[in-house]
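Worked example

This section walks through a single chain of length 210. The input is the sequence exactly as stored; nothing has been trimmed or padded.
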Amino acid sequence: MPVAKLNETSLYYESQGSGTAIFFIHGHGWTHRMFKLQLDHFSKHYRAIACDLRGNGQSGELRQSPDEIIDTQCLDLLLLMNMLHIREAVFVGIAYGGLIVQRMAGQYPERVQAIVIADSFCRSDVSRFIGKLQLAAAYMSWMDYYAPGELMLPSLRLAYRHWDLTYRELRRNMRRRRVLRGRRVMDDAVSAQDAGRDLVLDHAAASGAP
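Given that input, the structure is written out below as tokens.
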């Protein structure tokens, strides 16, 4: 099992193929396994990499305070790039992974070739009506962590029709303390000021991201 020892933790990762590096960043409560199909496909022409973010899957524990989590996870990724001798990469983030991708592009622009953000969000101004709706939805979504899994399965299957494995990963992990702790970061991101508008990149794509 490829495990990188860095930044006072361990980071599990998988790397396939060669060429331009593409990092796939998983959503909250999931692991690198959600990108199995993507790794198999893109590794035919690129170097496809997926890891378990700190506090998820087979990587080390999450011991940081909520306001340190995203910066720490981004530094982990930067150090993983250094260890793998990757100068710059494309970053693909879904849901919570979209927050990581935006922060990576903002903090380390010289290492980010392009970004793809899917089903995620950027920081919103809660003084506006849409911002208040996003904040309310973020707090209401806490119920998902305690509701029976059967209530979530139809909507997840509709959203990720090829990703049943993602549902299983989410339900197995979401009640763990470290996942609930990390969930606070997402609420803080929704209630803070917009940082995504300041990103300057040659290439960026967003899908399903308000």
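What to look for: Residues 66-83 form the longest helix (18 residues).
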